[in-house]
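Good morning C.,

I know you're traveling, so I'll keep this short. The sequence:
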Amino acid sequence: MRAKGRVFLIDDDGLILSMLSRALGNEGYEVQTYASGEEVVSRVRSFNPDVVMLDIRLPGKRPPSVR
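The tokens, ready to paste straight into the viewer:
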């Protein structure tokens, strides 16, 4: 089955990542989770997500804008 879309979840709270990832996965989305912005930078172009859900209070470097 083909995924409905690709989603990046970025949050430093593991419980939030787990719950959102499971819920979106159950709805047919391909989800990748990250605990920091630094992890995302190198992966954003290769995965080409349709949606990026970012904790706006995430400490550290923010991922670049995806256009």
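Safe travels,
E.
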